Amino acid sequence: MKDNALLHRSWTSIFEFYHERQTDIGGYQCAIDALEKLSFAISRSHLNRQLFAHTSHDRLMISQTKSTYPPPAGSSFLVIEPRVEGDLQLSMEYWGAKHREKDKEWARLTEAKDLHAQFNKLIRQLCWNYHPISEQR
Question: In this structure, what is the dihedral angle of CA atoms 19, 20, 26, 30, given to the nearest 10 degrees?
């Protein structure tokens, strides 16, 4: 039997990844900077030990449990993906027994400047957290 590989990284490591990520595409860099600020805020908050994350290219994937690959049935991820337009796509991915359950998934766009507020709103709607995190750095 093959062991599933753990994917999650510390929030400090996630912050450092986005902090070091540089691009010459202005709008995309704005979205990356928003992910840097969000991951820093999470690393300094109570969510540091309540939510788990990993990156897939520049996508931030957040879950309530430690992530493995392949994900077990019933897994869900809040995915935040930077876009070249300078905004970010927030979506939910759901995994069934063998594949993603795309019919359950949803997505919405947010401007980089609104990412923090949208994140707080979404994790409350998902019942993942009821105490918003601060943007202050």
Answer: -10
